[in-house]
């Protein structure tokens, strides 16, 4: 079959590479793709927001399955258009993608259906938000309601930091329309992990757990980013964690979406935290997580394309996984998640003995250069977290990473707890 992946980041590179390896797939296309994706798929010069062009391409190239990577085209209704044209697509409708597109919608859904999450209130007025923050105290969490590329969350350790974040979003339009409304949430203490499930209505296929590292710098310091690294599996969590999360969170929310008239098809990403009362929801996303997808799919031995096609027909199956651990370390442009320069060569970095997923790269005059904040993810594999970490960090230490930075502690918490 021919498969089309929509998007241009590290998550899409992981999808294209997996489809490239799948026996059921004859040809992989990616629109628009990036410099690394070009090694495993034919990149098509169509932007992920050009809906009519994407549909026309799928029709004219005998595409059996389209997978939509990023959240923006989902929120803009790309899935709906594909479905209207009778094309097979894996991704939620515009209505169902509100579970990511609006934090307030997700919180109200969880409250209505008693799905465990942090207490919260929503605000459009800074004065009202300020009074609530002062009443609650810190630590406390401030979230932009809409899409903000993973950067719209501030975990405030002081009241002053919380007030500044709320003012920045509501008064200074930090994320434009996405922060015209904010969610102010109780701080939850515990171990965070990511649980992605392939979903079609009531049919659910769970994927392996992963743990993301959101903060920019070592020891969870600095601002939130889209993710600076991840690893899978998360072996030190209690064995009952996944089953409990499935029974108390995933299945109830899937049923809730059906009852709300927005049945979910696609990847339901649950950002969870294991508290003393059990797992609770930090956030839901309506697509594959980045960088979790890179480490999870790197371990998948099942044919993903066939798995997705079968799921679209309502059939579930057990996923086969490598027993190895994969640790992924993101190389980001200096200055990220703030302002940064583009155009620096990554050719010397790519000489490292690691598998690289490209997130923000392009080819310029036959040279691969940085074209984004998160540029590459170096993946290392081993029989344990320690071995996988040693592989990837040994590789990165051998190269010149001028103009880029990476965290040195991805997966280190797992070493302490294993």
Short description:
The chain has 418 residues and is of the alpha+beta class. Helices cover 30% and strands 28% of the residues. It starts with a strand and ends with a helix.
The chain-level mean pLDDT equals 95
Q: What is the name of the CATH superfamily of the largest domain? A: ATP-grasp fold, B domain
Helix content: 25-40%
Number of strands: 23
Say what the CATH topology of the largest domain is.
Answer: D-amino Acid Aminotransferase, Chain A, domain 1
The tally of structural domains comes to 4
Low-confidence stretches: none
What summary fits the major beta sheet? 6 strands, antiparallel
Under CATH at level 1, the class of the largest domain stands as: Alpha Beta
**Which structural class fits the helix and strand makeup?**
alpha+beta
Shape type: globular
Pfam families: GARS_A, GARS_C, GARS_N
Family: Belongs to the GARS family.
Keywords: ATP-binding, Ligase, Manganese, Metal-binding, Nucleotide-binding, Purine biosynthesis
Catalytic activity: 5-phospho-beta-D-ribosylamine + glycine + ATP = N(1)-(5-phospho-beta-D-ribosyl)glycinamide + ADP + phosphate + H(+)
